[in-house]
Every structure is written in structure tokens, then in C-alpha cells.
Amino acid sequence: MKIFADPAELSAWTLSRRAAGARIALVPTMGCLHDGHLSLIAEARRRNAGEIVVSVFVNPVQFGPNEDYAQYPREAEADIEKCRAAGATAVFMPSPGAMYHPDRSTWVVEENLSAGFCGARRPGHFRGVCTVVAKLFNLAHPDFAVFGMKDFQQAAVVKRMARDLDFGIDIVVAPIVREPSGLAMSSRNKYLSPAERESALALSRSLRETSAAFAAAGGEMPWEPRKRAISAALSQAGLRPDYVEAADAETLEPVETLRKGCVVLLAAFAGKTRLIDNMVL
Ligand code: AMP
Predict the structure, then answer these.
(1) Domain ranges of the chain
(2) Residues 90-114: pLDDT tens digits?
């Protein structure tokens, strides 16, 4: 497995592999890898990628000034071993200085799908995501890139960006990997105390209950009472809801009635840790 820190070296290598006919997959991550990330590498293998490039980069420009950039867990050595064991063929671990010129002044901005939900609560977040993903696309020259449904809005925004800017890269979205408790795997789960981890189960529980109620209602249900019930359940469990929303899974337009093809999107704080989860009905 190759390990790159230098963007130019990654680019030269992926270009040469492409020229030799290899189908290249890119799996962008911020590291501290868990089974959710590894499932994306497995998905790339299933799709017969000749080279699987995993980027591990805690992207400073997608964090707000009061967010957890400095504390974000970093485990480079363990990540390299996990990538190797999962079948990645290259890891890209650049420094922030290698990725961003001090006088950088160009951004990639998606203006519609990124407006609500996490975009509304984290100003500048998706601008940072789109910019780094565009840069990774330009450096890794992938045929396809694999993202997780865990970050539902992010996957939608990246798909739109890839389409609108003619990257010619397929965006594959893989399902959420959960712990046996139902908790969606996340690098940020490391921050949770045992009590917060218990509280955090209310997110996935609320989604399961919503899905069951939706099925019992015959596949159509007003959103507002369910939204109130979810907010109350999250608060009761000791979480501080950030948003509780339902939207059309394609357009991300908010809906008043839950129907098949809607997504329920949740964000809540457990102590200082912001967690997200979602479920498509
Ligand atoms: P992150 O390192 O948190 O930025 O995530 C990198 C990629 O892994 C993103 O595409 C995430 O959506 C995906 N991912 C993170 N957690 C999970 C999970 N539990 N299941 C599936 N994909 C995930």
C-alpha cells in the first residue's frame, strides 16, 4: 500500500495508474477510522476498483471557529493499518499546509442543497466540504468516489457539485453502519462519556420508532406531531436537539407529510458533542 503526503505525488501516481487502465476509487475521510469508513472501502472493492485511495485529512476549512477542529481525534498509524487490512491500495495524508496556500482565495460553493439542516447550523461547513472534495477529485483522478449515507446532506451536496461542475466522477453512497445498540458509528463517538453514549441512543431509537409508526400508518403520516414527539424524546434522553427535520430525499425540500422516499434528519448535542443521524423511509 502506498502512502502519500504530497498532493503532487498522489496526482502523478493516480494519473499513471489511470493511464495503465486502472479503475480508481476515492474514499474521502477525516480519519480515526471505524467500521463505517471500512464499509466504504469494501464497497469500492465490490465495484472492482483497481486502485482504492483513502484520503485521511481533517479539513480545517469545514470547521467553524467554535467547533472541534483542534480536538478532532487523529490516529494516523492505526488508520494506515486499518486501510491496509481493508484492502486500500493508497492512503493520502496531507498536512493542512500542503492542501491550502496561505493566500488561497477560491472556494467551491453549492447554493441550494447545502442551505438547510447542517448547512444552516454550521455556516461555511459545506463550502469547506465542497472545496476539499473538489481538490481531492483533482488530485486522485478517481472514476468513482464512495461516501456514507451517515452524512446524508453531504452526499447530496457532493453529488450535485460533481454533476454541476462536470467532474465525470460517479458518486456512490453506502448505507449507515451502526453499532449493535443502533448508534450510528462516528469518529466523534469517541468524545462521549458512558452516560452521553446512553443518551445518544435516543437518535437511532427515534428513527426506528418513526419508521415503525410510518409503516403502521400505511406509508403516509403528518410530520409535525412526529417532529414534536422526536424533539421531546431527544430532550427527555438528555440530548439538546439541534434540528429535527423531514425532507424529500432527492430535493431536500422540507415536507409536511411523511411519504415513502422522505428522509428524517436529526442533529443533537450530547454534552458538547454534536451527533447526526438519519433514515430514509
Ligand atoms: P468522516 O471521516 O466522518 O468525515 O466520514 C468520512 C466518510 O465516511 C463520509 O462519507 C461519511 O459519510 C462516511 N461515514 C462516517 N460514518 C459512517 C457510518 N457510520 N456508516 C457509513 N458511512 C460512514
Answers:
(1) 2-174, 187-276
(2) 999 999 999 999 999 999 999 999 9
Helix segments in the chain, DSSP class H: 7-19, 35-46, 76-86, 96-99, 117-121, 125-140, 152-164, 194-216, 223-236
37 belongs to the catalytic site: yes
Q: Provide the grid cell at 203.
A: 437518535
Q: Is the pTM of this model over 0.85?
A: yes
Topology given in CATH for the domain delimited by 187-276: Pantoate--beta-alanine Ligase; Chain: A,domain 2 (3.30.1300)
20 Cα: distance to centroid of ligand 1 (angstroms): 30
Q: Please state which CATH number belongs to domain 2-174.
A: 3.40.50.620
Given a contact cutoff of 8 angstroms between Cβ atoms, the answer to whether 136 and 123 are in contact is no
Q: Which of 34, 37, 101, 141 is catalytic?
A: 37
CA of 35 from ligand 1 middle (Å) equals 9
Q: How far is the CA of 42 from the centre of ligand 1 (A)?
A: 13
